[in-house]
Structures are given as C-alpha cells and as structure tokens.
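look at this record:
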Amino acid sequence: MKKPQGNGAVGTGSNLIKSMEVFEAVAATGQMTAAARMLGMTQSAASQHIAALEKAYGVQLFDRSVRPARLTQAGTLLHRHAARILNVVGDLETEMRHQGPMPISVLRIGILASIATTLTPGLVGMAKKGFG
C-alpha cells in the first residue's frame, strides 16, 4: 500500500479519518464554513484538515475560484474512496460497540444537509419513541 507523501500529518490513524470526514463535509456543502459548523469545529480547523490532506497527497482537492467550491479531479478520486472508507470505519465502530459488556445501539441516518435542519428533529423523536 502506497503511503501519502509529505509530512505525514494525516498519514495514519484518527487524523486521516477526521480529515476525510472534514473533506466529505466540504464536498457535500461546497463551503468550508458550513462544513465546519456541521462538524462542530472552527472554520480554521476545517481548513487545516483540508490543507493537510492537500499537502500529504501533493494535490489540490477543491477549485476555490468558484462558489460553491468544486471538487478537482483529485478531489473526485478522494471523494469516491473516502466515502467508502468512512462507511467501513462506521460499520467497524458499530460492530465493536456490540462486542462490549453493554452493547450500545446505534441508529445511523444519512440525510442531505439542505433538509437536515428540518427533518432531523422529527426523525430523532420517532427513533426515540420506537427504540426507547
């Protein structure tokens, strides 16, 4: 497996996963500020994650000359792989939680950012009623 070049700041472990989460949020929203807000971090922190990915791989991931920001060819490639990686990591976390002495139930909801603020409260309420 080829490792990313650069300083290795996002090369392994949780830093890489977090950077991919930030990348996916920016790709979904097209805005660094909106992605940061969605993830509960500052815009500066989100920018640092994107900059670290770009430095590690030696590519530009977003075309920032347009609004909303668009994925470059390299960004599209990363997006395709990052989405799969994050799904696998999420599945692993869920399965590992079920291995402990007190399994934790997890409900994962995928929803478009544009309708999340409208639908999420109702969905959460329904889930609480249905699953306790």
User: Anything to note?
Assistant: The radius of gyration is 17 Å. The longest helix spans residues 73-97. The chain has five helices and two strands.
